[in-house]
Amino acid sequence: MPRYVYEAKDASSGCAKCRAGFEVVQRLGDARLAKCPDCGGPVFRVIQAPGLAHSATDLHYRAKRAGFHAIKKTGGGEYEKMY
Ligand SMILES: [Zn+2]
Fold first, then answer.
1. How far is ligand 1, taken at its centre, from the CA of residue 77, in Å?
2. What is the CB neighbour count within 10 angstroms for residue 7?
3. I need a surface site. Which of 35, 46, 54, 62 has the fewest CB within 10 A?
């Protein structure tokens, strides 16, 4: 089943878990999370680059630490994170 990474929309109000980003296993038809299961704060789903299989989260954090990331607002209150 696909795994998705969520992050706090507002990094200053989330808990440690969602500020850092967390992974959720969901079926394809499942609704995306809108809230952090721990603190209830708003979260958005990080769009994963295709082809990053089991180590997607590792790559995500490595890319992030290296500064290879950008967020663009796509309208409707959604965000896409690009590497
Ligand atoms: Zn949280």
1. 18
2. 22
3. 54
pLDDT digits (tens, 9 = 90+) for 16-38: 999 999 999 988 888 999 999 99
What spacing in Å lies between the alpha carbon of 45 and ligand 1's midpoint? 13
pTM above 0.85, yes or no: no
**d(CA 43, ligand 1 centre) in Å:** 8
* 8-state DSSP, 15: -
Instruction: Give the Å distance between the CA of 18 and the centre of ligand 1.
Output: 4
- Kindly report the backbone phi and psi dihedral angles of residue 19, in degrees, each rounded to the nearest multiple of 5, phi listed first: -65, -35
